[in-house]
Amino acid sequence: MKRMTTMALLALGMLSTAAPALAQQGLDEPFQKPFKEALAGKTVAYVPVAMNFDLTEGWYAGLKKELEPYGVKFELRDPNWNTNNGAQAVTSLISEKPAVIVVHNPDVQTYAKLLQRAENEGIYVIQINMGSAYRSSGFVGANWIEIGEKDAEAVVKACEGKSNKIAIVQGALSAAASAYTLKGVENVLAKHPEIKVVSSQAADWDAAKAKAITQTVLKQNPDLCGIIGFWDGMDIGTAAAVKEAGLTGKVFVATSGGGESKGACAQVKAGAFDLDMSYDVPTQAAQMGALIKYLISSGVKPGSVKGSSYTTLIPVTKDNAGSDTACWNLGDLKK
Amino acid sequence: MKRFRVTQQEIVFVVFAVLFAAFSILLPGFLTADNMLTLLQNVAVLGILGLAMAIVVLGRGIDISLIAALAVPPGIVLQMVQNGHSLPASIVTALLFAVVFGLVNGWLIAVAEVPSLFATLATGIFVAGLGQAFLFQLDVVQWSPGMEGFQRLGQGAIFGVPTPIVMFAIACVAVAVFLRLTRWGAYTYAIGDNPNAARVTGLPVRPIIILQYVLATLIGSFAGFVMAASINSMPTRIFNSTLIYDVILVVVLGGIGLSGGRGGVLNVIIGTLLIGTMLNGMTILDIPYAGQNLIKGVVLLLAVITDSFLNPRNEETAQQGDI
């Protein structure tokens, strides 16, 4: 980094002295060529937990857009929700030696050892949204604790002067994202002893289960003032239960997701969700792209630098759900 | 010598009654009209799937592809409407797809004589894969404008009864009529009881088996329509879930023998009620997910153990394919 700055300064200095004489001629920018050479022909492999849903499709489309113009080969290995397949994909990638592996962990443990091995073998590992116990060269993703805190704060605020009864609809128990979000919720609730959690159950990221649980909870506690859900794709079911009970607007529904327009903005506009904390997938993809370009062009040894880029969250509410920038559209991103 | 015998159906009913009584006494808010409706509503889709499975199991088969039938046709409706087609055209396309799917299943089993377990296992994976690869943009097919009216299949209430329960009731009546009042229903029992005897007697065994699978696929799709309407989307990934085991559980627990020819709609209702009561009670108790699975497992084990204790298997009672 320091060397780059010195070189940049040097170049600038040369520019200022040389410029008057060469004003009518073009000037070669000395760093773009090595950058292009470093990227050309490199392979970046992408191992999501599965394709076919807004998050992973969005990252895929975004990364492709960022990398392919530079001659980077972008490969996809789709384990289709099968952790074993995913581990196998990572293992075989280690022997194929791509320049970078972008990995979306199903849980904290499964890939941890493999990712460490990959970096030892000279492959940069970038983890997206769900990190593993091994800290690799780069992590890009949502801060789940923050999401839990923001959602809980909004629900606590909405409950002021009401029954103070809330429900929590968790994701899958084995998923770190779910456990971290819960921790964030707990952090806030610890400061608000007046709030009573009447139900905190896992719906397995499943909209039908979320609806069933919410229906039962609402029948038992019709004066519920808020629900914290852990994923907007699942909380479609939560919201449907609230709507059927005729409590839309009375029960505050807070959730989170990737900010795809049909899943987030359209739902907020329709009144299904009152708050959807979005981790804006195209921005995440762009940040991963930047990290990959930086790592490859810098030539640092994989695993020797480790950093994170937590996503700045976009709270999608009635106020901004109609704007063009709050959400993104998968169809447009793929174009 | 006549011996007092209790059937599995009765055992499950007793387990259900005991559980129901215990929850009613111990859980305030359980035995209310509202909660009873919620209980039923939450298992309505499972119940409809149970009916589809029952038809096939009565004919001594099994349909593992039922969850694909649940997921893919409603997914087609939602996706087509999203792509700008009209709702009626989308529904017709989806139903045609379901019929073809059922015909292929039936043909494989009745004519090509592939064992139903393997045939439907394969077709289910194929259809789910087809949906994922070519038909749907995303795993969760979202609701879009143009679907108005469709949600009435799964939301709201008819005469104060939540719609999914009404749909379950309609499916129960339809299947009961098919099984008890039509000739094809009687043939289904005959084939399930003894396929060879049925063939020798001159029953149209192959067409009836094909009919069973077409009906099962259509009823499965109907369950999917109700589900999609109820949650305003179709999570087609549900194919990867363990829902099919729950369906088989409802059928077997209710007392429909996998060896075919025994049981009816009532058995499905009892099996569904037991599962519904357990789920509802445990949700009210706010029992964590892992604990719920444990309890579910223990209750099922109890039912099965009691059954084999009261009705021990021997050469006389054991049938081929009995598990």
Topology:
The complex is a heterodimer of chains A (335) and B (323).
Chain A: H1 2-18, H2 32-39, E1 43-47, H3 54-67, E2 73-76, H4 83-96, E3 100-103, H5 112-120, E4 124-128, E5 138-141, H6 144-158, E6 165-170, H7 176-190, E7 196-202, H8 207-220, E8 226-229, H9 232-244, E9 252-257, H10 265-269, E10 275-278, H11 281-298, E11 307-310, E12 314-316, H12 330-334
Parallel strand pairs in A: 1-2, 1-3, 3-4, 4-5, 5-11, 6-7, 6-8, 8-9, 9-10
Antiparallel strand pairs in A: 10-12
Helix pairs in contact in A: 3-11, 4-5, 6-7, 8-9
Chain B: H1 8-26, H2 33-58, H3 66-82, H4 87-111, H5 116-135, E1 140-142, E2 157-158, E3 161-162, H6 163-181, H7 183-193, H8 195-201, H9 205-231, E4 233-235, H10 243-254, H11 265-284, H12 289-310
Antiparallel strand pairs in B: 1-4, 2-3
Helix pairs in contact in B: 1-11, 1-12, 2-6, 2-9, 2-10, 2-11, 3-4, 3-5, 3-9, 4-5, 4-9, 6-7, 7-8, 7-9, 10-11
